Amino acid sequence: MKHLLMRVKARILAKFDDFYSRPGKVRKIFKFLMITVLCIFSSIALLVASIWLGFFGEIPNRNELTSLNQQVATEVFSADSVLLGRYYWQERSTVPPGEVTTSLKHALVATEDVRFYEHNGIDTRSLFRVFFKSILLQQESAGGGSTITQQLAKNLYPRKSFAFLSLPINKIREIIIAKRLESTYSKDEILVLYLNTVPFGDNVYGIKTAADRFFSTSVKSLTADQAAVLIGMLKATHTYNPRIFPERAKQRRNVVLSQMQKYDFITLEEKKSFQGKPLGLRYNKITHNSGLAPYFREYIKNEILAWCASHKTSNGKPYNLYTDGLKIYTTIDSRLQRYAEQAMQTHMKGLQKKFVNQLSKGTLKEIVDSNVRKLPQYQRLKKEGLSEKEILKEMKKPAFRKIFTWEGGKELQMSAYDSLKHHLQFLQAGIVALEPETGAVKAWVGGIDHEFFQYDHVRESTKRQIGSTFKPIVYAAALERGVDPCEYVSGRQTAYSNMEDWTPQNSSTDTYDKKYSMEGGLAGSVNTVSVKLLEMTGIDYAIETANKMGIKSELPNVPSIALGSPNISVLEMVSAYGVFANDGHYVKPSFVTSIADNQGKVLEKFDEEPESEKALSEETADMMIHMLKRVVNEGTGSSLRATYGLSNDIAGKTGTTQSNTDGWFIGITPHLVVGAWVGADDPRLHFRETSLGQGSRTALPIVGRFLQYANKDKALLHITRARFSSLSPDLLNRLDCDLERSDRNFFQRIFNIKRKTKERKFKGGN
């Protein structure tokens, strides 16, 4: 063996002697090659130096790296700490280091960078492969040399374009940033930073959002197989998306589990057990249009944006709602919100079928033809110079469109014209529930589906005619004015001519020959009695009372306001009814309780002690509750008992406007006021039959179902089992009278002679 080695050595030396004995041409070639290699390395050194010095963009220093500012979605929470939704450009949430499980770290290291804990940010074993394949040969698909730290650098500081030098410059930048990251953070901190920044597909960024989106769980609750699914996605977020390609995702998960077993992070038995499990996907997509309370989240957004503009971060810049990861805590109760949405969906789905059969096809066509001109496609075609006939022809060409159905959104071949016609036919609803003592809004449903119908039917700017739900305000004003609740008021018709050429009518003909106490008139919702009570009270005083109760909408100075001719929002009406339950005090509705930063530090608290204003006397409020309980027990709201079997202590009032355009019901319990409105967006579309379109059939069932659901929730017993205080003996005595009496004398009753209607001038004001 020794002799063999000596012969090999001698042969090599002979080759070198032979090379140097050749003519100068060979030596020149060798010299040229040496110079070329030297130039290449010099160029690389110069490129590295120029990148280091920032000629190709500033490289973050240690101070900047210690205060990394990622784009983090702002999260909106309910009062019971349930995530309602997020405001974001990129859907990203961060997770603290303590919540990242060991199995998640092991899955990441085993799959992406097994020598992560050994290197200092650069894996030298892969550098030569990266250099020759990725840099010299410009093969982007030949990567694989990037460590987790380098990938983090790329996530934090995305690559830029530098023409043909893009790949080498970006790679060198990432190496420099990776080295600085390693000197700034510990290995585990780097892992957490990486998991908080990496994209998982479906516009999801960060492990916290991914865990919630794909498995409806928290990061600390992820099992090893779930962690393997999410880490497996990182190779190709679309290809291995478990929502789109479950089989591919499962195969990729099993590869990750094999890697974990290969490097002794799990045992062989554990690997086999996890690989035998189904994916167990529990997809939970919360977008701007989905999740709980989307209309409410959209409503408070302007309030939060205004707060952000007037408050600054530590660097002196205003807070950014979409990137600063704020935490917004609201008054919404997630359970009540869920029950309100379920009640609306269940009832409206069945009601819609009846509504479509009642529609006037001619009216619908007229409405579609007038609204089609508002569509962006129509406006674009008009700008292009097409005639009206040509535009409508284009608008009626079918194409794939996503439309709303009560079974979910569907992609169908449908023209823009027919899509508009389809969506205009749907009944809408607005529901809000608030706590009368604090004004805290506990549930808010602004429409039947936020993705397709973003017009909010609860907010103050959306006003609809309110019908008989205004009557309790007139009655309360009359009590405040000193009208005796047992003073009998005639139900006979009267014409009013000085302000309106108007003669109010009752829904039942047998009400005109009776006199009613306040309780009787309200329980039967007798229109003529309400107008006469308004006459006794004075319109100006009734309007003043309504204003004190929180109604800011314009109220016309006409007698028909007694029957609810004004247009008022759902939110205003429900907060006004809260006065009855709150001993006569009005409390302005509140929506947000506090705002915290990304680390949970509270930046500001709101309405800890809400201000209340005296609107009615306590005696008036108590008597109104008593009378409105009679409406539910025996009057127009009695189906809450008969149909929905509710035993709660409830007061309330129904409302139906002319031609059944709007249906209302507002219910009052001791600690919760719930109001619902139902109608079509275009008032010309309505039920033709009052038996179907009245508020007791359209709006009341939503409140009835809502309370049914709430009654089954043991956590809500403090609301559902609450009881109103008993009336004092004095107030009981004031209300101790019959609901109604006959308004005809002996001879009129015998011969069925009715009183003649007199024309009167209405005495408004004081």
Keyphrases for this structure?
five-stranded mixed sheet, 13% strand, 45% helix, 766 residues, 31 helices
How does this structure look, described?
This protein is α+β, with helices and mostly antiparallel strands and 766 residues long. Helix content is 45%, strand content 13%. The chain contains 31 helices and 24 strands. The chain has a five-stranded mixed β-sheet with strand order 2-1-6-17-18, covered by helices on one side. Strands 10-9-22-21-20 form a five-stranded antiparallel β-sheet, with helices on both faces. A three-stranded mixed β-sheet has the order 3-5-4, with helices on one face. Strand 9 and strand 10 (441-445) form a beta hairpin.
Shape: elongated
For the residues shown, what is the average pLDDT?
Answer: 87
Q: Please compute the radius of gyration using only Cα atoms.
A: 37 Å
Helix content: 40-55%
Uncertain residue ranges:
746-751, 753-766
Give the CA-CA distance, first to last residue.
Answer: 126 Å
Tally of individual helices? 31
> How would you characterize the largest beta sheet?
5 strands, mixed
Sheet with the most strands: spatial strand order? 2-1-6-17-18
Instruction: Give me the secondary-structure category.
Output: alpha+beta
What's the β-strand tally? 24
- Strand proportion: 5-15%
